Amino acid sequence: MQEEKDQELQETVGGENNSETTETTGKTPEKSPESTIENPKSVDSHESEKTEPTEEPTDPEPVKEETEGKTDPKPVKEETAGKDDDVLNEIDESNAEDAEDQDNQHRHNIPMLDYHAMSMENLVGELQRLVKNEKVQAIKKHVDGIKYEFDLKFQEFIEQKKEDFINNGGNELDFRYNSVSKRQFNEVYSEYREKRNQYYKNLENNLKDNMANRLAIIEELKSLVNVEEDINTTYKQFKEVQEKWRNAGPVPRNNYNDVWRTYHHHIEIFYDFLHINRELRDLDFKHNLDEKIKLVERAEALEKEEDLNKAFRELQTLHKIWKEDIGPVDKEHREEIWERFSNATKVLHQRRQDYYKDLDKIHEQNLEKKKEIINAIKDISENIASNHKALQQQIKKVEELRDAFFKAGKVPQKVNEQTWAEFKEAVRGFNRNKNAYYKNLKKDQQENLDKKRELLNLAISLKDSEEWDMATSEMKRIQNEWKKIGHVPRKYSDKIWKEFKDACNHYFDRLHASKNESHKDEIENYEKKDACLERLKSFELTGQRETDLATIKSFIEEWKTYGRVPFNKKNINQKFNKILDAIFKKLDVDRQESELLKYGNKIQQLANAENDRAIANERSFIRKKIDESKNEIRQLENNLQFFSNASEDNPLVKDVIKKVEKQKEALETWMAKLKKLNIMQRNLEKEGLDEETGDSQEEE
Question: Where is this region: Disordered (predicted)?
Fold first, then answer.
């Protein structure tokens, strides 16, 4: 993302311009959350908090040479050349920060997300992730950015809630709002501060001890000059001092550059002292020059690195090695090698400057997008809807525009606050007009409340009625009337709805209980069918087709013996047939046979009902299906005549033939069903005739 790259570039090289010692006290200023947070001091709107040790170790004593004929020297030119150059100062500052704690370098690898585009809930989640998973000293800028954006969004959110509260008749002094997001944020932020304070507390003593140790090493280095002993012995002691220095540990970042300059100054004095043994000195000078040439070549190669962030992190590391690991070179090459290194640094700096020029153009484009969004919100505000449904759509649209504003990206710093202020005013203008509309609805809502209370009283009067036909019809009528009535005041809405729903539920529960009592047989049938269905579900095929088919038929026969089930439970028959279809498929039973086996269930139901009209309807339905199948077959066969010259392999011909065969199979099935239905009816008629004959014989 463009903004992430921008932020990371700013973070990578710049570091923090001052040492982190305390947090300032004060309320977060109201300005656009798009502001780049460049000040390393966190703004805490709650309390002033000490975060790092404020008692700093004593600075290295002024660099003075005690040897005869020497004056107070200035720091080595190669280490301070270009001091006015911003990029060199930035690198020094960042290396000083990393030198205090190596884990702090990890901050370069933690993505700086677009916190401006994130919701309060997402900001809390990201803060939790950082505090849980990252080094506390490496996430300061991330936490500051999250806190800044969260405070702005929460301030806007709470102001709107207060405005809504007042517009609904509340007193400003009585306004209270319990925000879950705010409570969660405070908890996580407190955890972060505790971890941070503990970290700096532990770090403080270690840094002070290391600083004292390094000052002692400098004193030891100074003492090697002009000693009256063998130069080889002195040189050996010098190497031991260098080794001690390399292992002396980190010092406070605000002392880092001074103490290194002092150390290197005395290193050079020692090399001057070695003029009596040029061989030793020149060997070191040559080694140091070779190493610095390697660093310069690596720095120059970074010009071709496409990833600017990666290039600057590498450059920062090279400067650190130059300062900490490699000693001075002879005066003849000192100026030249430093000039090459400095120039390579400035080349990358210029690339970054060019990048930011392009970024400014993007910010201008973002500004235009945000102006369009602000104007769109203003346009909606000036044309507020005149009904609830349309206004709800406008509210949704404004929310979409609001999200788009946050996702539009950064704008030029000079118009940052102005853009944010215009956006907030546009949103508040819409909210004021929206609230004014709903305020005018209060009169209508009160009338709606009176109407609903009348319906509620009527429902309560009917809930224990025993006149089922009249009461049921009336209950349904008042439920429909309730739906037609508009909104009521919010503070009554839930309560009156609950009372009305409870009265209706009470009545219909009694009605259903009454029906259940009168249909015990149907309930018993349902329970039996349900048990049969569960056994069918657990049935497993044995692999013997005839045996399995006989078992399935026994399930069907059992199912036929159970009568009708309650109307609201009739889908159990569909479940039964669905399971049968799956089993028949496994047994490779053709569709017609399976349909006829299942149809026996329908035949049994018709026989048990002894309803001539139902039987007649079933016969009429089957005959209709037979006619439809015949007509479809006739039409398809006519279509085949158009393909008289076509091969049977023709896809269209094959498709028509397949459809004809399918319809013929269906016709056979319907004919078989009609036959079963006729047999069942004749059996019923025969049974009826037998009963009449038996009755006549008894009378005789």
Answer: 1-88
- 230: which DSSP letter? -
Query: What is the percentage of the chain residues whose pLDDT exceeds 90?
Result: 9
One-letter amino acid at 290 equals: D
**Rounded distance between C-alpha atoms, residue 120 and residue 271, angstroms:** 60
Q: Does the structure show a pLDDT above 70 at 658?
A: yes
Note whether 591 and 665 are within 8 A (CB): yes
Would you kindly state where each structural domain of the chain is located, as residue ranges?
A: 445-517
Q: What band does 223 get if pLDDT is binned at 50, 70 and 90?
A: confident
Q: What is the pLDDT of residue 98?
A: 59
Residue partners of 661: CB distance under 8 A and separation at least 6? none
List the beta strands (DSSP E) in 615-680.
none
* Averaged pLDDT, 262-268: 82
Residue with more model confidence, 228 or 410: 410
Cα(462)–Cα(470) distance, integer angstroms:
10
Question: What is d(CA 145, CA 111) in angstroms, rounded to the nearest whole number?
Answer: 12
| Mean pLDDT within 69-82 | 38
Containing 55, the helix (H) or strand (E) segment is: none
Place of tokens 């962030």: 309
Angle at 581 between CA 575 and CA 582, to 5 degrees: 95
380 touches 394 (CB < 8 A): yes
Is the separation of the CB atoms in 625 and 670 below 8 Å? yes
Lowest-confidence region among 25-39, 292-306, 497-511: 25-39
Q: Check residue 426 and report its DSSP letter.
A: H
Q: Are 151 and 91 in contact (CB under 8 A)?
A: no
The position carrying tokens 């609201």 is 568
Longest CA–CA span in the chain (Å) reads 160
Instruction: Judge whether residue 75 has pLDDT over 60.
Output: no
Distance CA 297, CA 344 (A): 9
Place of tokens 């190497």: 239
Residues 6+ apart with CB under 8 A from 403: none
pLDDT at 76: 37
**Mean predicted confidence (pLDDT) in 2-8:** 41
Do residues 625 and 617 touch, judged by C-beta distance below 8 A?
A: no
Give the span between the Cα atoms of 638 and 641, in whole angstroms: 5
> Any residues with CB less than 8 A from the CB of 537 and at least 6 apart, and which?
579
Mean pLDDT over the full length of the chain: 75
- What are the tokens at 464? 């224990």
| Helix residue ranges, H only, 412-544 | 416-440, 442-462, 468-484, 490-518, 520-538
Beta carbons of 20 and 41 less than 8 angstroms apart: yes
The answer to whether the beta carbons of residues 157 and 33 sit under 8 Å apart is: no
* DSSP H stretches of helix in 302-415: 308-324, 331-382, 388-407
- Give the pLDDT band (50/70/90) at residue 228: low
The H or E element containing residue 24 is strand 24-25
